[in-house]
Design brief:
This protein is an alpha+beta fold and 70 residues long. The protein is built from three helices and three strands, in the order βαββαα.
Length: 70
């Protein structure tokens, strides 16, 4: 089931920002945008899950995202 109110995150945002957005909203994926255009998707798994703090440290969303969104 998909919602119409899609949450997005900028490709240049920190990976921790994306993780916080997922956690605060109880969701599992964010659409990644750059200059208003869809660039990919990032998931909890991409961000290393709840134990992924080292993976997210100093990483941006574009470092960890899946670059192709269908």
């Amino acid at each position: 089931i998909m919602t119409e109110a899609v949450k997005t995150v900028d490709a240049d945002a920190s990976a921790d920002t994306a993780w916080n957005e997922l956690s605060e909203n109880g969701i599992h994926h964010l659409v990644v945008t750059k200059n208003g255009k869809v660039r990919g998707v990032i998931s909890e798994r991409d961000l290393g899950g709840s134990r992924g703090a080292l993976l997210r440290k100093d990483a941006t969303v574009s470092d960890l995202m899946t670059p192709r969104a269908v």
